[in-house]
Write a structure and sequence with these properties.
Layout: H1 7-24, E1 34-35, E2 47-51, H2 59-65, H3 68-71, E3 76-80, H4 84-92, E4 98-102, H5 103-111, E5 116-125, E6 129-133, E7 147-150, H6 155-166, E8 175-178, H7 181-189, E9 195-199, H8 202-206, E10 213-217, E11 226-232, H9 233-238, H10 240-259, H11 261-272, H12 276-280, E12 286-288, H13 291-297, H14 307-320, H15 337-348
Parallel strand pairs: 2-3, 2-4, 7-8, 7-9
Antiparallel strand pairs: 1-3, 4-11, 5-11, 5-12, 6-9, 6-10
Helix pairs in contact: 1-4, 1-7, 2-10, 2-11, 5-14, 10-11, 10-15, 13-15
């Protein structure tokens, strides 16, 4: 789901962390960066689309297996990444054309000099990002002095700090242990830390510790964690018709999932590397956005449910924790024309 780490981490530790998460990720069933059910031979002119373990991104697998990309005449090479960090660095390096990533990580990439464009909201996390604690910790106040693991600079780190701030705690009140998400979950289960900030499916792993429980989640902070289809600006400029066809395919996939829930869940659970029952448990923790909700999210606003506002808040966060030297310019990272075009087409059909 989202090993949502800043560009600085990608550059410095990408290779090591990608290997580590490949060992601990429940969804690690394939080699990092491999095609997912596509032809072994690269298709000339195909959209190279990266995705990794998060419920809001598994519909891409359905789009491929249900033939929806072909229906829209857009060749797509899905690239599965065991390590989400590597998907971010691969997009930044221009080795793929698009990636499934969080708003926070997109802002991080832009802060590092990348030129990327958010064209679609896949979902908002509404509970699948959690702060999980060991037995005996009953409140956020009980975190004081405790060892808490999270991947530094990620949206789960952001979620942790939001919850602490609401309870009157500062970052100095805990013993923060910076670990990539898979290793953080493993450290929690082995008793090396008292609490952990992780996302599904790592939440399933963390909750296997006897007596562990959810302290709070993204459900308590609406709009704080949003997930997107992000293209390089160069690809959008040169191939707007392929971007449109990819966006169209996404919404048509959502219709397919609604009409064929059993088959779609089977595909997505297999891609996640979890049982069908475990996958179904993630449903309420991820809010998949309709086209109408997409259009609304792109509008300016004064809460985290507005993407422009949320991007500014994430910029502040990255600067405050020292992961961005200067506040990144987020004024040009949103392009809603493809979502709007699909909405117009849907009205006519």
């Amino acid at each position: 789901m989202q090993i949502r780490s800043p560009l600085s981490y990608v550059v410095l530790f990408g290779i090591v962390l990608s290997f580590a998460i490949g060992c601990s990720n429940p969804a690690s069933q394939m080699k990092t960066g491999t095609d997912t059910g596509a032809s072994p031979t690269a298709v000339a002119g195909a959209v190279r689309l990266g995705f990794s373990a998060w419920p809001g991104w598994f519909p891409w697998q359905v789009a491929q297996e249900a033939g929806i990309f072909q229906k829209n005449n857009v060749p797509v090479e899905l690239k599965w990444f065991d390590g989400y960090l590597e998907s971010i660095s691969t997009l930044t390096a221009g080795q793929i054309d698009a990636n499934s990533q969080t708003l926070g990580d997109t802002v991080s990439s832009v802060a590092g000099g990348a030129d990327q464009v958010v064209v679609l909201v896949n979902d908002n996390s509404t509970g699948n990002d959690k702060i999980i604690v060991r037995d005996g910790i009953k409140s956020v106040a009980d975190l004081k002095g405790k060892k808490v693991a999270a991947e530094e600079g990620t949206v789960d780190h952001f979620l942790l700090l939001q919850g602490m701030k609401k309870a009157g705690l500062s970052p100095k009140d805990i013993q923060f242990v910076p670990l990539e998400t898979g290793k953080a979950a493993a450290a929690f289960v082995s008793g090396k830390v008292d609490a952990v900030a992780v996302f599904a499916p790592f939440t399933t792993q963390a909750l296997k510790l006897k007596g562990s429980r959810e302290l709070f989640s993204s459900k308590d902070f609406p709009g704080s964690i949003s997930d997107h289809l992000v293209f390089t600006r160069k690809f959008v400029t040169e191939n707007p018709e392929k971007v449109q066809a990819t966006v169209d395919s996404w919404f048509e996939t959502l219709d397919y999932i609604k009409a064929n829930p059993a088959k779609a869940n089977e595909i997505m659970a297999k891609r996640a590397g979890v049982s069908l029952d475990e996958y179904k448990a993630y449903a309420d923790g991820t809010k998949i956005f309709t086209v109408e909700e997409n259009i609304k999210a792109f509008q300016p606003g004064s809460t985290m449910t507005s993407l422009p506002f949320a991007a500014k808040e994430m910029s502040k966060f990255l600067t405050e924790v020292g992961l961005a030297k200067t506040t990144p310019d987020t004024s040009k990272i949103f392009d809603d024309r493809f979502v709007k075009a699909y909405a117009q087409k849907a009205k006519k059909s």
